[in-house]
Amino acid sequence: MTDDGPLEIADAACAGYADRVGMARLAKLAFDGGDLRPIWAEVSARLLNGEADAGEGIDLSLVAQLLGHKETGLAVQQEVLASHRLFRLPCTSNSPRMRVLALAAATDMGSNTPIEFLLEDSGIELIVLYVTAEADLPVPLPAHDIAIVIASDSDDCRDALQKIEAAAPRWPRPLLNPPSLVGNLDRDKLHRLLAGIDGLVIPATSCCARGQLSQASQSAEAPAAIARDLAFPMIIRPRGSHAGVGLAKIDDVSAMQLYLDTSQAQEFFVAPFVDYSGEDGLFRKYRVVFVDGQPYACHMAVAARWDIWYLNAGMSGDAGKRLEEETFMSTFDIAFARRHRTALAAMAGRIGLDYFIVDCAETKDGSLLIFEADNTAVVHNMDLPDIFPYKPPQMRKIFDAFVAMLERRVGQAREQAA
């Protein structure tokens, strides 16, 4: 191999990976109300005694995070990755029809694409390689048919993305979601990328330090010093936070000071607040998945609160809300996707990723309102079919589209090599 030639790749399946249970199974157990504490007690004891293997260690890191102990989980992960970085996830076939290599970063469970859900029951083998600043990429690379970057555009993924980006021109197999495009998705970049698209609204998001916000709490006009169009009310969240942690609507200077008094964060994202409530006073938030440029309905949440995400919307306890979500899914292609066809297509083109997710709404004038886009939001089939009978077919549609994209790209690469 030379610096100008393709990277070397193993001729056959590498024996250097460690098997693990993985996120899909452990998250499903937690989602269904299962008790993860016995797993934590057993595996942590084995890890302390030096009896647990690397796969068990990474699973233990995930269990800790699912139990709400993020820092403990990350500490376990760091210890394991110091000596082992290659892992194999469960596969439904003893003779996989394809091998996918996912390139992950050493970060929390919300900052790598949960790709396992997308490959459930697919007969495709998933290998995960953690790319770290401390270690070079393995030589040769693990055997694979196609690779995909699952690290996100977050601070603790920067080193991984940079290392993959440096190797990308010489990657010997198709490489999906290239780092150069993943790196456009953080909140303060996305609005610049999507600005000017007809029928699309995305509030300008700014990153600011704690001191700037402290000054902004001195007068009603002070937020304009952070960003030209920023004023009360505004939305604020700690930079790097997930799932609404630390998210708040700030209506005035006193609310800003109170927020700062109760937050330990040093950097924040701020943006103008947009009232996207409907005529009935309810808020509706949509998750749309893009696979190879094509949008698919993922879920719809309805609630009386603006800071809505699926788990706080009370969907399982309200048949009317579920009927509305079912209608959103069943009519997506002829209703929502048709209404926003131009905006969705332009957004897919500018973002350019093979797979990504958008959380969005509709403004009072019918425009598409974008909250965020990333490659790591959870797309799953964990909801109970007795309560959500319309979801499994829709999730299967997304999963099948993802697998079809993988097969198409692998086939194209083989044709070009022939």
Describe the structure.
There is one protein chain. This protein is an alpha/beta fold. Helices cover 34% and strands 19% of the residues. It has helices at 23-31, 37-48, 54-66, 70-81, 115-118, 158-167, 179-182, 187-194, 210-216, 253-262, 319-330, 336-339, 341-351, 391-417; strands at residues 18-19, 86-88, 98-105, 124-131, 146-149, 175-176, 200-201, 206-209, 234-238, 248-250, 267-272, 283-291, 294-303, 355-362, 368-374. The strands form three sheets. A six-stranded mixed beta sheet has the order 1-2-4-3-5-6. Strands 7-15-14-12-13 form a five-stranded mixed beta sheet. The mean pLDDT is 93.
Which residue ranges are poorly predicted, with pLDDT under 50 across at least 5 consecutive positions? none
Q: Biggest β-sheet, characterized?
A: 6 strands, mixed
Q: What percentage of the residues does DSSP assign to strands (E)?
A: 15-25%
User: Considering DSSP H and I runs of 4 or more, what fraction of the residues is helical?
Assistant: 25-40%
Strand-pairing-aware structural class: alpha/beta
- Reading the helices and strands in chain order gives EHHHHEEHEEHEHHEEHEEHEEEHHHEEH
Distance between the termini: 21 Å
Number of helices: 14
